[in-house]
Specification:
Layout lengths: L10 H11 L11 E3 H8 L3 H9 L5 E4 L2 E5 H27 L6
Antiparallel strand pairs: 1-3, 2-3
Helix pairs in contact: 2-3
């Protein structure tokens, strides 16, 4: 048995029908996501550096409506390790200076 579907009377109604049928929950940003600019501010680095981390899949992201959204749980995990690494480098630099191994 063939089911007949009503054809919208105008191109506008047809486009509206298609648009609403194609909406999915994964088409919208969620609360647990942020923009590349927001991620750059959180990490205190340039958007270019953040984009490099995203491109290398070090931080998880997805593209929604042409915009890249960063997954905040992945961002926070990276930020914790990044902060820890920066603190370790600061300690090494301080120790080197104290031992006279580091030139100013």
């Amino acid at each position: 048995m063939t089911t007949l579907t009503a054809i919208p009377s105008s191109p506008f109604l047809a486009s509206q029908s298609l648009r609403t049928e194609s909406l999915h929950t994964d088409s919208f940003p969620t609360v647990s996501e942020c923009t590349v600019a927001q991620a750059a501010k959180i990490l205190d680095m340039s958007e270019g550096c953040v984009n490099e981390l995203l491109r290398d899949k070090i931080i998880a992201s997805r593209i929604v409506n042409g915009k890249r959204l960063v997954q905040q749980d992945s961002l926070m995990a990276f930020e914790a390790g990044y902060r820890e690494g920066r603190e370790a480098m600061a300690d090494i630099t301080r120790w080197s200076q104290e031992m006279g191994l580091y030139d100013d």
